[in-house]
Structure formats: structure tokens, C-alpha cells
Design goal:
By secondary structure, the chain is α/β, with parallel strands linked by helices. The chain has two domains: 3-103, de novo design (two linked rop proteins); 113-245 and 280-350, 3-Layer(aba) Sandwich (Rossmann fold), CATH 3.40.50.1820. 46% of the residues lie in helices and 16% in strands. Helix 1 runs antiparallel to helix 2 and helix 4 packs antiparallel against helix 5 (89-107).
């Protein structure tokens, strides 16, 4: 077992498991991956094994099982290309494309299928998935978006919590994320992409445009707050991990700095410090006009703990918090508690409208 590989897997284990990678696979990967240079290769090999299981399931008529295997195959590719920074752009793009293709195959096989959609934003097409719950519409809808290395594909399990509660979901890749990373880097006005996603819902008669919510994860939690404050169509907002600002960018660990800089296509730390000065919610919570939930880990090393308190002090609309005192970023180790709670919060407020 390579100690560097083991350290990375252990550091990300809560997130890997909460997103859908089974715990035994982590031990398997530790044993298989010889060094960090072969990180992506090891994950892709595991992805191929899940793909083979999916094919066998399809041949046996078990389409739901096949969908789950394809979803996990896609997840393996996601983590193979998304966690470590020392990966060539060619390999990253190749593995990312494989992830998208695998998930596309899974999307239509689920009992509550996901439909591919496209969102026009500043000359770029943002890819997304619309998922409608069983029953008759029009449905309330929650727009879901991630952070620096979370994408529409790894939001699948989260969308299920909303579908089970009668809510539609729209997940999409925004600037600097997923498939869009190669066309448009991260922008400080990401909330404009969220509004464009809401605009796109007008094309779908199954969606009730008067009952729209947003949920942003990690870096996206910042933009969930900002979008809700600036777009009056949003009736409920959730931040799954709230980063109030990045004034402390210069003090972040090197791994975090590289992650932010890659998403924004910035090469120098000095340029990044200036760029991310615009990532600041100062003056924003006062403009919130809808119920707002913050899910936070008390030991989050990316989000200073005073951010939640600053929102609570400034906001004039109702704000609820779900703080896991002993958890890290996004409280991934408590996702089994946070995910249903977030879906409950959205359904409680949207279905009562």
C-alpha cells in the first residue's frame, strides 16, 4: 500500500462514501494504486469493472441494477480526474468524457429517469439534467449546483431525495465545472448562470415557475445565498457548506489554492488573490427574501466559522442552520442526516406555496 495514496483516500473518504462509492472499494483502491501518478488509472480500472457488471445486468434484464452500476462507474471516473491536481489536461478531459458517457447511459434506466437539457448562458451551452418526480405536474423544482469539483453527475443520489418528496430537480454544470470547465472558467458572477438555469425552466410545462428553489454545495453554497438574494423567483435556498468569503485565500493550503486556480484558469497566486476578492457575501444576506438553510461542519477548514454567524446577524428573512460541530467541509460524514433534512426543508416550503 502506498502511503501517499492512502492519505488522499482517507482524507476524502467521507465525501467519497457520501457521494456513492462503497466503503470496501476504498480499501481495494488503496491496495491497487501503486502511487499517486497512477491515481486516475486505478479509478478508471474500477470504473470498467462496474461497467462490466452493468452490461451483465442489462443482458439479464435487470435495468435498474445496470443503472446503479453505470452511475458508480461514472463516479469512479469523476474521482479519478477530479481530486488530485497533478493530472494532465488530456487525461482529465478523456476521463471526464468517459464519466459523462457512462452517466448518460444510466440516466434513462432509473425508475425516475433524468432528461438531458441545455441552458444558454453567455454564448455557452450549459449541460444539465431535469428530473421529474412521479405524478402530475406542474412540479416545484430545486436547481442544484456544485462547487469546484462537483458536477451534475455526482448529484444523482441527492436528486432522489427530492424526487421522493414530489419535487423536480435541475442539475447543471456551470462556469468552471464539469463539461463547462473546458469552455468557460469559473466566474465571480456564477449566480447569473443560476438565473439562466431558472430561465431555461420556462421551456418545460411540467415545472411550476412560481415554486423554485436552489441548493448549492461547497463553493456553490456561496452562490446559492447570492442567487437567492438577487433573483426574486427563488422561493427557498439551501447552502450545503457556506463559504462566506475568500479573504483568507493566501492562507489556504496549497491543495485548496490549486483547486480554485484550476477552476478559474489562473496561473499565479497573486492573480488568484485579486480574482477571489470578488467572492464575498458582504451586503448580500440583507437582501435575502426567502427561507434559507445552511448545513455546515463545525471543523470546516475552508469556511471560517464566523460566516454562518454573519449571515444570521445580517439576514432579515428566516434562516435555519444545521451545524455538525465535529464535521469538516460540507459535513460529508453526516450526509445521511443532511441530505434528507435539506430535501425536507425544500419540500416544506415549496409544497406549501
Amino acid at each position: 500500500m502506498n502511503s501517499d495514496v492512502a492519505k488522499v483516500i482517507d482524507a476524502f473518504s467521507a465525501r467519497l462514501i457520501s457521494d456513492g462509492i462503497p466503503f470496501p472499494d476504498l480499501a481495494l483502491l488503496k491496495a491497487r494504486i501503486a502511487d499517486t501518478d497512477r491515481w486516475c488509472e486505478g479509478w478508471v480500472n474500477l470504473s470498467r469493472e462496474y461497467e462490466e457488471r452493468a452490461q451483465a445486468s442489462l443482458e439479464g434484464g435487470a435495468s435498474l441494477t445496470a443503472a446503479l452500476h453505470l452511475w458508480r462507474a461514472a463516479l469512479c471516473c469523476h474521482f479519478g480526474q477530479g481530486i488530485l491536481m497533478d493530472i494532465s489536461m488530456e487525461l482529465k478531459a478523456e476521463t471526464d468524457a468517459r464519466k459523462r458517457a457512462l452517466f448518460q447511459r444510466a440516466a434513462g434506466l432509473f425508475p425516475v429517469p433524468l432528461r438531458e437539457v441545455s441552458i444558454d448562458f453567455d454564448g455557452v451551452s450549459l449541460p444539465g439534467y431535469l428530473r421529474l418526480p412521479p405524478g402530475q405536474g406542474p412540479f416545484a423544482c430545486v436547481v442544484l449546483f456544485g462547487g469546484l469539483d462537483t458536477t451534475k453527475e455526482d448529484a444523482y443520489e441527492l436528486t432522489s431525495y427530492f424526487a421522493e418528496r414530489g419535487l423536480a430537480t435541475l442539475t447543471f454544470d456551470g462556469p468552471g465545472q464539469g463539461a463547462v470547465f473546458y469552455e468557460m472558467p469559473l466566474r465571480m458572477d456564477f449566480e447569473a448562470a443560476v438565473s439562466a438555469a431558472i430561465d431555461s425552466l420556462a421551456q418545460h410545462a411540467e415545472i411550476d415557475l412560481d415554486r423554485i428553489g436552489v441548493l448549492g454545495r461547497s463553493t456553490g453554497g456561496h452562490w446559492a445565498c447570492k442567487a437567492a438574494a438577487l433573483d426574486p423567483r427563488i422561493k427557498v435556498a439551501i447552502s450545503w457548506g457556506l463559504i462566506f468569503d475568500l479573504r483568507h485565500f493566501a492562507d489556504l493550503p496549497d491543495s485548496y489554492q490549486k483547486r480554485f486556480m484550476r477552476a478559474a484558469n489562473i496561473g499565479k497566486v497573486e492573480e488568484a488573490i485579486a480574482f477571489f476578492a470578488g467572492y464575498d457575501l458582504d451586503g448580500i444576506p440583507e437582501k435575502l427574501n426567502c427561507p434559507y438553510l445552511i448545513v455546515q461542519g463545525g471543523l470546516d477548514d475552508l469556511a471560517p466559522p464566523d460566516g454562518v454567524e454573519r449571515v444570521l446577524q445580517a439576514a432579515r428573512s428566516p434562516v435555519e442552520t444545521m451545524i455538525f460541530a465535529q464535521s469538516g467541509h460540507c459535513a460529508h460524514d453526516r450526509a445521511h442526516l443532511a441530505k434528507p433534512a435539506m430535501a425536507d426543508f425544500a419540500s416544506r416550503h415549496l409544497l406549501s406555496l
